[in-house]
Amino acid sequence: MVAPQPRIGNWYRLGGGELFEVVALNDDDATVDIQYFDGTVEEMDREDWDAQWDDGLIEEGAEPPEDWSGSVDVEDDDEQAHGEALGEDTTPRAGSLEGLDLFE
User: Which of 12, 22, 56, 102 has its CA 20 to 30 A from that of 70?
Assistant: First the structure.
């Protein structure tokens, strides 16, 4: 069976159950850049991609994880709750344009 062409943005599953997303393809080097849920980025040769597909180690059509914060260290809910607990206004606002010279 011929291995499918990896597509940027598609999620796959390794035989061990780890989810990963294809984040870049380099036709010149014949490589596939993949990113695991925890944020780790890895480069894989197309030959390795094809061999792992043939061995049944890569599964196509994996659903993306529901929780996209796997590689993010900051939790927005905690920071917002902390600001509200201190009585701070946590509404995002743009900075002032005061002092901006439009004719420079």
Answer: 56
